[in-house]
Amino acid sequence: MYEERWNRGHLNGLVQSYTDLIFNEEANETAAEFIREQVRSKVADPETARKLEPRGYPFSTKRPCLDTGYYETFNREHVHLVDLREEDLVEITPTGVRTTAGEYEFDSLVLATGFDAMTGALLAVDIRGRDGVTLRDKWRDGPQSYLGIAVSGFPNLFTITGPGSRRC
Question: Which of 42, 43, 63, 157 is geometrically suited to a Cys-Cys bond with 49, CB 3.0 to 4.6 A?
Answer without folding.
Answer: 43
